[in-house]
From TrEMBL:
Its EC number is 2.7.7.65. The chain crosses the membrane at residues 6-25, 32-53, 59-76, 83-102, 114-132. The lineage of its organism: Bacteria, Pseudomonadati, Pseudomonadota, Gammaproteobacteria, Alteromonadales. Residues 177-308 form the GGDEF domain. This is diguanylate cyclase. The keyword Transmembrane applies. It comes from the Bacteria. Keywords: Membrane, Transmembrane, Transmembrane helix. Pfam families: GGDEF. The keyword Ribonucleoprotein does not apply. It is an enzyme of class 2 (transferase).
Length: 318
């Protein structure tokens, strides 16, 4: 273009290099894309301002954009990354102002300064748009990670109490389908921790969670409330079906042998309380807990359905 074919080719190569940043994004390498784009931009303006043209061309001033771009494109990076980019930019501008040699490869045509700045400005806009995209992706990924951490039990990798309680509140208000709450507590679990150690106890909780996950109906919400206590929310129209699910879970836990860190085999059992979910999710959970305590009182390793009416619970509340 305009008789500067080598320069046009060099510009095209830099455009291709910028485009490769989007390929990094497509394959899930966000940070690679960020560094690739920033280093390409730095190299681009350094070559143009120190080798191709002299300082009067003004390409060195585009280097300033790399400093804010580094914060946008690398939001989670160490402060030293941003500091190093800032230092590189300032050194680059200093070198460009001083000049590496007396004669540049091309005499910059002052008549085309506006056109040149317009072209470089377009490349700069592309770079900043990529920076914003990278920043948004990093923020979305961080938010998703925080959401997952706030809703998932770290040990068993199933939903936690917070997620379960918010879910039953949602179902109690918004669904017309019949649901039942199953509250489950492992029997004499403290003895397992005392006899075999907490590492074995943690393994037992993981195995119990996996065992339950394998047998519960599809769509059942299963969560760890804390310690050795779990809860399920099952969608079914029949009380007998809910009790049957609880019985199946109880039998699966009782017949599944566990192994200590020293290779000893042992078993654990569970007591389960069942109650129907109503629009008053808090009282429904209380009924399920009450049924669980009754199962414990009846000798453990059994299922009890909460037969009492919600109004009775409300009346007995302090």
């Amino acid at each position: 273009m305009l008789g500067y074919y080598p320069l046009a080719l060099l510009t095209a190569l830099f455009c291709i290099s910028y485009g490769l940043s989007f390929i990094w994004i497509k394959i899930g390498k966000a940070y690679y894309a960020s560094y690739h784009c920033l280093i390409t931009a730095f190299t681009h303006f350094m070559i143009y301002s120190t080798v191709i043209f002299d300082r009067n061309a003004g390409f060195q001033w585009f280097l300033i954009a790399i400093i804010p771009a580094s914060f946008l494109m690398l939001p989670n990076a160490s402060r030293w990354h941003h500091f190093m980019f800032a230092v590189a930019v300032m050194l680059g501008m200093t070198v460009s102002e001083i000049g590496l040699h007396y004669e540049p490869l091309f005499d910059f045509p002052t008549d085309y300064r506006t056109v040149s700045i317009f072209i470089e400005g377009i490349l700069l806009v592309i770079t900043l748009n990529l920076a914003m995209e990278m920043s948004n992706k990093a923020i979305d990924k961080y938010r998703a990670k925080l959401t997952t951490l706030s809703q998932k039990d770290e040990l068993t990798q199933i939903p936690n109490r917070r997620f379960f309680m918010s879910s039953i509140k949602h179902y109690a208000i918004n669904t017309k389908q019949t649901h039942f709450i199953l509250t489950l507590d492992l029997d004499h679990f403290k003895k397992i921790n005392d006899q075999y150690g907490h590492a074995t106890g943690d393994d037992a909780l993981i195995h119990v969670a996996n065992t339950i996950n394998q047998i519960i109906p599809k769509g059942t919400l299963f969560a760890r409330l804390g310690g050795e206590e779990f809860a399920l929310l099952c969608q079914t129209d029949f009380k007998k079906h809910a009790i049957a699910i609880a019985e199946e879970i109880k039998e699966a836990i009782a017949t599944h042998h566990l192994t200590s860190t020293e290779g000893e085999h042992f078993y654990c059992t569970a007591s389960i309380g069942v109650a129907q979910l109503t629009q008053n999710d808090s009282l429904s959970m209380q009924l399920s807990d009450k049924a669980l305590y009754q199962a414990k009182a009846q000798g453990r390793n059994c299922v009890v359905f909460a037969e009492h009416d919600i109004k009775e619970v409300e009346t007995n509340e302090p």
